[in-house]
Amino acid sequence: MVKPYQIPSPSMVPTLEEGQRVLVNRFSYRLGADPDIGDVIVFHPPIGAERGNECGSDKLPNQPCPQPTEGMAETNFIKRVVAGPGDTLSIENGTPIVNGEALEEDYTRPCRGLGGCDFKTEITIPEDHYFMMGDNRGASDDSRYWGPVPREWIIGEAFSTYWPPDRIGLL
User: Fold this and answer.
1) Closest C-alpha to 76, from 26, 118, 127
2) How confident is the model over 103-140, as pLDDT tens digits?
3) 166 Cβ partners below 8 Å, 6+ apart?
4) What pLDDT shows up at residue 114?
5) What is the pLDDT of residue 113?
6) Known catalytic residue at 3
7) Which of 79, 90, 140, 143 is catalytic?
8) Rounded to an integer, what distance in angstroms lies between the CA atom of residue 19 and that of residue 81?
9) Alpha-carbon distance 15 to 135, whole Å?
10) Residue 41: enclosing H or E segment and its boundaries?
């Protein structure tokens, strides 16, 4: 099943603009495919993500949130997968360092010294969880603050834009 979603915030700029509309494939992950690093996905975040940035566990200073809260929020978020189950992750100047290697991301808007740019204390992503970040690194509330997302909370992968007409295309 394919379902449309509207982008609610500027957290995915420049890839997706606020108000832009995308189509989401809700089948592939349900049929056994796993999200890959770089996929843009729609998911339910942990409770607390929608009203602030609640981490589900204590964390060290300068460390991304290692665990989400236990409950799933009813709202939908759209972000990019930057790390998966068992990956180690730290963040330097807004760039995820996954298993010791910086991700090459030509689609992001840099942090430019804003908050959330550096989380140099490494975490390990739990089994069956994925770490999400917005492409607009200085203006995205994401897994850095509320933790990795359980696989079962993932709705599907955004694969195409259909509105506005001048932005129609594949992601």
Assistant:
1) 26
2) 999 999 888 766 678 999 999 999 999 999 999 998 89
3) none
4) 63
5) 67
6) no
7) 79
8) 21
9) 7
10) strand 40-43
> How many domains is the chain partitioned into structurally?
1
Q: Which of 87, 102, 86, 81 is nearest to 39 (CA)?
A: 81
Q: What is the DSSP string of 70-89?
A: SSBPSS-EEEEEEE-TT-EE
Query: Residue 52: which CATH number?
Result: 2.10.109.10
CB atoms closer than 10 angstroms to residue 33 = 12
In angstroms, the CA 43 to CA 34 distance is: 14
Known catalytic residue at 79: yes
For 119, the domain range is: 2-170
Q: What does DSSP say about strands 119-124 and 21-25: parallel, antiparallel, or unpaired? A: unpaired
Tokens of 8: 């609610």
Q: Residue 53's pLDDT is what?
A: 81
Most distant CA pair in the chain, distance: 45
Contact 84, 41 (CB under 8 A): no
Residue type, 6: Q
The mean predicted confidence, pLDDT, of the chain is: 94
Which residue of the set 3, 9, 11, 59 is catalytic? Answer: 11
> What are the tens digits of pLDDT across the range 9-52?
999 999 999 999 999 999 988 888 999 999 999 999 999 998 77
Spatial separation of the C-alpha atoms in residues 47 and 158, rounded to whole Å: 22
- pLDDT at position 36 is 97
